[in-house]
Amino acid sequence: MSLVVYLAAGALALSAAVLFRRPRTTAGKPSALQPLTVSTCVAIVLGAVVFLCSAPMTLAAVNDLTGIPNFGAPLTYGLLSAYSCSLLILLINWRGGPRDRVRRLVLRSIAVYGPLIVAIVVLFALADARVERLTDLDTYYANTPGMREMIVLYLLGHSAAIVAMSVVCVRWGREVTGLLRTGLRLIFVGAVLDLVGFQLAKYTAVVARWTGHDLDFLSTRVAPPMAALAALICCAGFVLPRLLPAAVGHWRGMRDYRRLDPLWHRVGFVSTAPKPPAAWWQLPGERLHWREVAIHDALLALAPYFDDGVRERALSAALGDGRSAHQARVTAEAAMLAAAARRAASREEPLGTPSTYRLHAMEVSGADGLVELAQALRAPLP
Fold first, then answer.
1. N or C, which end of the chain is more exposed by having fewer CB within 10 Å?
2. Are 233 and 276 in a shared domain?
3. Is-contact 154 120, C-beta < 8 A?
4. d(CA 327, CA 139)
5. Long-range contacts of 120-128 (CB under 8 A, 24+ apart)
6. What secondary structure does DSSP assign to 231-251, as a single string?
7. Residue of 282, 234, 231, 265 whose CA lies nearest to 373
8. 265 shares a domain with 227
9. Cα–Cα distance between 236 and 183 in angstroms, integer?
10. Same domain (yes/no): 162, 270
């Protein structure tokens, strides 16, 4: 079981690291200071810590370190309650609204779960739990005064948070579309799986002990992997709407960066733009921006070599081949640019009467115009 929960903890921690890295490199100010980013990362990290602490190997190490049998139980249950609270706070910040209302709801959540965590610790301190149990503590101590109340209390606290989260997801999901709705649906699926696979299994095993029956396998074998799967699905629901647009943007940036290769290889030798830092962690969007700047600089340097005659002949030939007016224009500009680059590479003198023609790629913003010109250079020119 330790391997399962350690893998879940690692996956959650990785998600938090990726989410924390993504906004800091794309936003105008460090979004790690934004409530939504903070609450998302805190919730995911707390989930990872809960799984880390609930592993039998970790529980044994904590118990040995403190010298208190079963000390890992209130530690794990307290962290689970904090995780439940963080999920509610995350939904509050995600839903948004007036700042005063958001702050009030966050404080209410803390006001409920703060005393709950204190009560878990106090109940454990008052209980007699001298026998160390690493995998079946909930059922072994289900009838022990103090421990019984602590177990029920942490389960109820987690159930309340998951039910509230499910209700919010259903209601909010009716109002939104796109990735946000997909994320809410994933969170709802994870919440239902948590309720049925983890909590119902725990409740059933504990109640069975109260009635003199033994269904411990539900608590020890069924609940842990179901909790791990539920947490991962919920994490995907929280992270997907925030990371997928950035991931698509990075993929497009990488694609456009590569598609600019024919143009860069043709004109890059005349660019005087400063070279970007050679950092392997540089994002595709940043690399694309540097290449766009360098190519624009090169096009300005080659402008004195532009020959309108070459462009007009190429334009007539392209139109004669049946290309659209826009395709013919880009093809003609590519032919003129290729000729200008050859003259510049041969160190010929610029034309006596420089062309005043402005390339289509210089008139539009973004990389689309440059990509069109680069792709035209790859094709046979008229």
1. N
2. no
3. yes
4. 74
5. 120/74, 120/77, 120/78, 120/81, 120/150, 120/153, 120/154, 121/74, 121/78, 123/147, 123/149, 123/150, 123/153, 124/70, 124/73, 124/74, 124/150
6. HHHHHHHHHHHHHHHHHHHHH
7. 265
8. no
9. 7
10. no
* Planar angle of CA 245, 193, 58, nearest 5 degrees: 90
Tokens 């105008």 sit at which residue?
Answer: 28
DSSP string, 262-278: HHHHHHGGG--SPPPP-
Is residue 1 within 8 A of residue 224, CB to CB? The reply is yes
Q: Yes or no: say if 32 and 39 are a contact pair by the CB < 8 Å rule.
A: no
Secondary structure of residue 279 in the 3-state scheme = coil
70: left (phi over 0), alpha (psi -120 to 50) or beta: left
Average pLDDT for 108-137: 94
Q: Whole-angstrom Cα distance, residue 322 to residue 337?
A: 22
- CATH number at 58 reads 1.20.1070
Mean pLDDT, the chain, integer: 87
In a domain, 131, yes or no: yes
Q: What pLDDT, in 10s, does the model give residues 267-301?
A: 989 887 777 665 555 677 788 888 999 999 999 99
- When pLDDT is cut at 50, 70 and 90, the band that residue 211 belongs to is very high
The pLDDT value recorded for residue 23 is 43
Residue 170 lies in a domain: yes
Which of 219, 244, 269 represents a domain boundary (last residue)? 244
Residue 215 burial (10 A CB sphere; 0-12, 13-18, 19+): middle
Contact call for residues 126 and 147 (beta carbons, < 8 A): no
- Domain match, 267 and 358 both: yes
Q: Within 10 Å of residue 327's Cβ, how many Cβ atoms?
A: 15
Tokens representing 275?
């070279």
Query: Helix 308-320 crosses helix 325-345 at what angle (to 10 degrees)?
Result: 140
Domain containing residue 313: 260-378
Instruction: Report which secondary-structure segment, H or E, holds 163.
Output: helix 147-173
Q: Does residue 201 register a pLDDT over 90?
A: yes
Last residue of a domain, one of 244, 275, 290: 244
